[in-house]
Amino acid sequence: MSQSLVEECTPLKRKYDACFNAWFEGYLEPAVSAAANAEQRTKFAQQKAAEFESSCGKIWTEYRACVQKAVKDKGLDAMLDQARTENPLKEPPPPSPADASRS
């Protein structure tokens, strides 16, 4: 696993990466079988979101705060704001009818 933006954030990054990877591994396998219908997929996604928050939410919040502080301390926040202004994220295009028929 790679290093974080600054050395002091790396232990939090490693802890979060390990938590996320364990959660995601448990997410992938059942996600395939939970794809039966929209209601089941929604329920499964809600359960997994709650599980993620319970398992990894606090670690993620701490890691994100560490990185955000590092970004500001390094003066990168102004560059990020400029990039967001010059190239804002756009909504993805709506799915094509062919994509909708695969769900």
Cα distance spanning the termini: 34 Å
Q: Could you tell me the number of beta strands?
A: 0
Broad structural category = mainly alpha
- What string, H for helix and E for strand, traces the elements in order? HHHH
Radius of gyration: 18 Å
Which shape, going by the Cα principal axes?
Answer: flat
Number of discrete helical segments: 4
Largest sheet: none
User: Averaging pLDDT over every residue, what do you get?
Assistant: 86
- Helical residues, percent: over 70%
Instruction: Please mark out the parts with pLDDT under 50 across 5 or more consecutive residues, or reply none.
Output: none
**SS strand fraction:** under 5%
Description:
The protein is flat, with a radius of gyration of 18 Å. About 5% of the residues are buried. By secondary structure, it is mostly helical. The chain is built from four helices and no strands.
Features:
4 helices, mainly alpha, about 100 residues
Short description:
The protein is mainly alpha-helical and 103 residues long.
Draw up the topology in text.
Layout: H1 10-33, H2 38-73, H3 76-86, H4 97-102
